[in-house]
Amino acid sequence: xxxxxxxxxxxxxxxxxxxxxxxxxVMPLSSVKGEVARVLKEEGYITDCAIIEDAVQGSLKITLKxxxxxxxxxxxxxxxxxxxxxxxxxxxxxIPKILNGLGVAVVSTSSGVMTGEDARKKGLxxxxxxxxx
Length: 133
Prior knowledge:
Number of helices: 3
Largest sheet: 5 strands, antiparallel
Order of helices and strands: HEHEEEEEEEEHE
Number of strands: 10
Shape: globular
Distance between the termini: 32 Å
Structural class: alpha+beta
Radius of gyration: 15 Å
């Protein structure tokens, strides 16, 4: 069976691994998943991301981040905004602020995958991939 939305699968694997208290989540690799993982690492939502090469496709290993002594999840909510059945494209002025700036919107622009704040500063719009806080 083919996967219709690999990015949604990535977010679900991260969500499930954090709820189960796992240290890391492993998923099939794609260029968009790798770029989204890079943005999540830069913004401090995950500890690390690594590419595992193999003969077929490769895998992406994401090391999850927990905060404090009680190991609270660093990612409270992660939501896929644009999906294959309904793509959401936004201009630079229409990129939403997540929780009044406490969260992050991830946008795929012509200059690559970046946060909504970076896209606003550069005056770029694009496909609104996900929101996270």
